[in-house]
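Sequence only, no structure available. Ideas?
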Amino acid sequence: MRFLFLFFLATAFFSCNSKPKTTKPSFIIGSWERLNNEPNHLTYEKWHSDFKGVGYTLKDKDTTFKEILAIENINDTLFLKVTGVNEQPTLFRFSSQTDTSFTCENKQNEFPKKITYWKHKEKLHAQVSNEDFKIDFVFKRLK
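Reply:
I predicted one. Tokens follow.
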């Protein structure tokens, strides 16, 4: 009887101390081409299985924009890390997530303050925004 009590006590203790798992959004993995580009521009995002990626825009074969992307787990919280746009990497903290979407925010960043990705049917959508302005992206998966 005493053994049973100690077993339940130990189980309860370790259950209360376990940290929730964070699941990275696997729906973004792959190579994507933007469908709603500005004229004469081609925009791509490529996400690897280690949740590191790159986004870039070409105009007449010249790179006009490039950012290095990563989804990182810092102290059991997911962040989208964007490097190459500002002097220092910018972290956007995940504020909501489902199996097919996530939103991350950095209220101190001038633009964007909020980044949302979601998958609808076979398309990947993204929106970058602040209180006054937003940019929508629609991507198709490349074979």
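Residues 23 and 77 are 10 Å apart (CA to CA).
Hope that gets you unstuck.
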